[in-house]
Every structure is written in C-alpha cells, then in structure tokens.
Amino acid sequence: MMIKNIVEIIEAFIEKEVEIVSEQEMGHMPTLGEAYECITKDSISKAIPSGINLHVVSGFINGLPEQIDCMLVHGEGVRYGRTDKYFYDIENVLVVFEVKKTLNKSDLVSAYKQLAPISKLACDKFFEGIDNNNFPDCTDAHRHFSQITGRIAVNSWSELDYCPPKDVLMMSVLTQELLFPVKIIHGYGGYSTEYGLRNAFLDFLEACDPKVDYVSINALPNLIVSERFSLFKTAGLPFVPECVDELWPVMASSRDNVIELMVEVIWSKISSFYNRAMPWGEDLNVDSCAALLLAEPLFDSDAQVGGWKYHTREPKERTLQEARKPSEWRPAFFGESTSSILIHLQYNPHVDTQSDFFKGVSEEAGISAQDLRKDLLSSKIMAEESGRYIRFILPVVHMLFLKEGGMAASDDIDRLETWLSKHEIESEGRMVFVNIDRIL
Hints:
Layout: H1 3-23, H2 29-45, E1 54-61, E2 68-74, E3 78-79, E4 85-88, E5 93-102, H3 105-131, H4 139-149, H5 165-179, E6 182-189, H6 194-207, E7 223-226, E8 229-233, E9 248-255, H7 258-274, E10 285-286, E11 290-300, E12 305-312, H8 317-322, E13 327-328, E14 332-334, H9 339-347, E15 351-352, H10 356-365, H11 369-378, E16 382-385, E17 389-392, E18 396-402, E19 407-410, H12 413-422, E20 427-434, H13 436-439
Parallel strand pairs: 1-4, 5-6, 6-7
Antiparallel strand pairs: 1-2, 2-5, 3-4, 7-8, 8-9, 9-11, 10-13, 11-12, 14-19, 15-17, 16-17, 18-19, 18-20
Helix pairs in contact: 1-2, 1-7, 4-5
C-alpha cells in the first residue's frame, strides 16, 4: 500500500477516535492523556509494513528513568511484570513519541526535556563505540552531506581525521541522525497559527542555557506536530535541504500535512534501519516549507572545540500563509548540449570543471562554465570534489533520452516516468548509472 493510502487511513482513524474521546467526559487527566497515547499507538501500527519484527509499545529505554508514551521498537523487549510496559535497549528503539492532547508552550518544553536525554544517551553510546574502534557506516550520511553542501564527503568515519573541522562537525551530526532514535512530539490540538508554533519553539531555545540544556542538532526533535502545523528537522530522515548562504537549514515548518510528514519520518527510519525500500508511490506533490533554524558550524582551533550557532528566520503569519503553495516534483533536466555531461559520467568517474571538454560544453550551451557548474550541483544527483571534479553521488541514477531533445535524470524511476507521462513527454532510450560502492 502506497504512502498516500496509508495517510488517508490514518487521518480517518484519528478523526473518528478523537471524536469518540471528545464526546466522553473524563476529568482524570492521566486517563485522558492515556486515551490519546492509545490513538497514537494504534495510528502508527497502521503504518508499519508487514513481515518485519517491529512493535509499538509503551515503556522504558534501559539507562533512562522516565517512561516513554509510545515507542516503535525492533525485537522483543523485557516486559515489566504483568504490566503492558516494556524495557528496550536504545539500539532497538527506532522512534519515540511524546503525546499531548493540547500542545501549549509548557507542554512543548516538558516534551522536549523528556526526549532530550534519549539523544544524550544515544550520543554517549555512539562515541563509546568510536573509542572502541567500532566505526559507523557513513554511506548515507556521505550522500546527505554532498546533497546539502554540493561537496563530496569522505567515505568512512576513519577518514574524518583528514577533513576540515567544520566538515567533521556536519558529517558527525548526519551520521548520528541516521543511528539515533527519531523523536516526535505529537500534539492533537494546540497552536492556531504556524507562526505561534514557530515562535514558541524559538522562545524555548533562546531561554536555554547551552551549558546546562542539551540543544545540539541531534537533540532537536525530528518532528513536532500541533494540530495542523508542524516543525521538522532537515537532517536526512528524509528531508535534505540545500545550504543557504553557506548555512545549513536544520529545521523548517509546514502546515496541513502533519500525518503525511509523520509517516514519511517513520518510514525513512524503518528504511534506514532495515536497509529496505518503502512503498512511497508515485506522488508528484512536494509540500512547501519555511526555514526556521539555520546552523553555522563553529570551531575554535586553539581549544580544539567545535559547535553550532543557530540563526533564525522569523516571518510573520501573513508571510507564511502567502508563500505556501504546494509545488510539483520534477526531475533534473539537461539540454542537448549539457546532456553530454551525463554521457561522460556514465563512462568516467568524474568530469573536470577546468577541462577543455567542460568549457566546450558550457560554450555550446551558451552559459558560463561557473553557471554550468552551479546547474549541475543544484540537481542533487552530483557533487564536487577538490573544488573541480564533479561526479554522481547517488547509488543509482536513471537517465532518459527525450524525443524532444536533452535528458531527464533522477534516482527515482517511478516518479521520473510518472512525471514525463503526466506532461506528455516521450523518451526514446535510457542509461542507468550504478555506483557499486554505494550499493554495497
């Protein structure tokens, strides 16, 4: 079943269950809260693919004292007596939820502080493994780094010793994001405007003391939902932005698609954990979003200490409303002249932007070599190495020759063919680039 169908089922289920709970009087707040936790648990269960050993439970993460409202976990945990609560090691926890009937500022703060120790525990275990030479797989983080920055990252954790410190900071965060539990704050009601939710979160961050509070990028929730509005992290699960003025947009906001975002985040984590494809479908809609936090890497060479400085974007509600029109996904397009770059990369490891070949392509296309370079990097299927060599960064790139001339390319062949069909564009041949190193 494709994601669109799953989202429709969950939305209908939540609407009905919330209606039932709302019609029943309940003055006992813990029981009322438990009712909404059960709705979340049953909703998430509907999004789990069959045939894998995943469960939705309440309970505890070993090493932490606080109970978790809802966890998506792998394998069999340890049941606490005859209760319906379970203990799990953090390595087997994929997603954690904090559920609120109505998300206000105090609930947002308490939910954040409930989830932050999970990131801290995961971080401690991560670097404990590094100290024991148990290095993580950086394959996906490598791709995300390249797509965000337009620059090729190193292939393995051990190679980070030879990278610029600021690149090390970013690669470390992206690698940890793929390994740490996803954190979701699910508010059924709450803020009546996107601006209100954004502003409440920024007020909380500004009130934090970095020396006491855990506010690193990895500690930020992956998704915060408040009725129609959401804040989400753009660190690869599944959202990968482009740098803005050399700053990394690490959080953004959206509206009206909260359940779809939740399923996308959960499916991305499942896909990463099990290394399996999910039935995303052929939907061409791309939801618009507005940047909230942009992260700047900082490094003190004397103290050999690095960290992140957050920059905020604070448009008013009217601006947020006016700018929000869903757009359509589209593949990367290459004209008849620039298509020769794709053909070149099919048979060569890279294209040299300082070569006569590259300059010749730019002249034939009628653009400068620098503009051609920018166009190639903006496709997100390529990135640059050593300031001059451009190559593919995805495991697979499908390239279709168009009858009207030029080529279209993407790593998603289903979406690519659906887009061409919708716009009545015919193709007459194809090439497929397979990066064996990325596949393995």
